[in-house]
Amino acid sequence: MTIVEIKPEVQRNPAETIDAPPPGPAQAAPAGVKTAQGVSEIVAGARDGGGEAIDYVYFKRRQYAIYRRGKPPQVVVAYADEELVADQQIAEISGLLPLRERLLRLMEDLPSKMQEHHRAQLADAIRLGLEKQVPSAQALLTEAIDEALATQGRRGRMAYLQWAGMAIAPALLLILFGGYYVQGRTGVHLILMSIGAGAIGAVLSIAIGIRTRTVAIEGDWRSNAVDAAVRVGIGMISAGVLILLLNSGIVSTISAGGVALNGSAMTWQLALIVGFAAGFLERLVPDLLEKTVPPSKPAAPGAGTAPPPAQH
């Protein structure tokens, strides 16, 4: 009986992956626990040839058994007791390895309930492969991969939105602090209120992007959290910079509805609107900065070159 552990491994060719023995020395079974010596003896509660406890048997036929063992759980195949038949079985399902590897990678960050669901799909696909229905097995694994990707995307969007939403409370505090406690400091309260509004604008932009599926979601929740935090931080910085540009006179030609957005005309209401717009529209401040920098003029032909020598 050949036992094969269905898990990601780094091997040089598919045959080595399929026919690899379980890692580590076999463990002695506790007293009263039977060790399976053949496919017919693979049952839940027994020990397999590698000394691992068999947790659950997905499928068992006369020539093979597919079961779960170990922590973290792994899908394992016990091939036929006859070596020739086992070699044929290994060759039959070797084409499933690429899809299997991808599914196992996607399962790593999924909840335990979803992992078990995909392990059952993997076991069913291996069964179909051993029953000479490889196209059906490949279709099942492809469907499982698509399902895992969809689950991963939903979880990524939720993590993205949660981490972005954490900026709302500090943003509101900045707005309240700027509105009530630093009114006597000219311009400071406008900057604080604008920065808070910029964070809220960025969060709204992220929420709309998630709803319309235009936000790039990573499989790792940490990457989503970092990306969300960076986007909110950019919105806050953009809002503060835009208020400084307007009040300093560097940008002095902006008006909306006939209302100037700079100098003494800048009220706390306008500061909130300007900050929100800077956070919501990521390209607003970079575009303004590009417009305020005069384009460089090309050098005149012959400039910087020595005059030709005089001819006598």
Descriptive report:
This protein is an alpha+beta fold and 312 residues long. It has 2 domains: 3-156, no CATH class; 166-292, no CATH class. Helices cover 53% and strands 8% of the residues. The protein has 10 helices and 6 strands. It has helices at residues 14-18, 83-93, 97-107, 112-130, 134-165, 168-180, 188-211, 221-248, 268-280, 284-292; strands at residues 3-6, 54-60, 65-69, 74-78, 255-256, 259-260. A 4-stranded antiparallel sheet has the order 1-4-3-2. A two-stranded antiparallel ribbon has the order 5-6. A hairpin with a 2-residue loop joins strand 5 and strand 6 (259-260). Helix 4 (112-130) runs antiparallel to helix 5 and helix 5 packs antiparallel against helix 7 (188-211). The longest helix has 32 residues, at 134-165. The model is unreliable at 5-26 (pLDDT under 50).
Task: Outline the secondary-structure elements.
Elements: E1 3-6, H1 14-18, E2 54-60, E3 65-69, E4 74-78, H2 83-93, H3 97-107, H4 112-130, H5 134-165, H6 168-180, H7 188-211, H8 221-248, E5 255-256, E6 259-260, H9 268-280, H10 284-292
Antiparallel strand pairs: 1-4, 2-3, 3-4, 5-6
First and last CA, distance: 103 Å
Major β-sheet strand ordering: 1-4-3-2
Task: Pick out the low-confidence regions.
Answer: 5-26
Radius of gyration: 32 Å
Overall geometry comes to: elongated
Number of helices: 10
The chain-level mean pLDDT equals 76
Percent of residues in helices:
40-55%
**Biggest sheet, open or closed, and with what strands and sense?**
4 strands, antiparallel
Question: What order do the helices and strands follow?
Answer: EHEEEHHHHHHHEEHH
According to DSSP, the number of beta strands is: 6
Give me the secondary-structure category. alpha+beta
Count of the domains: 2
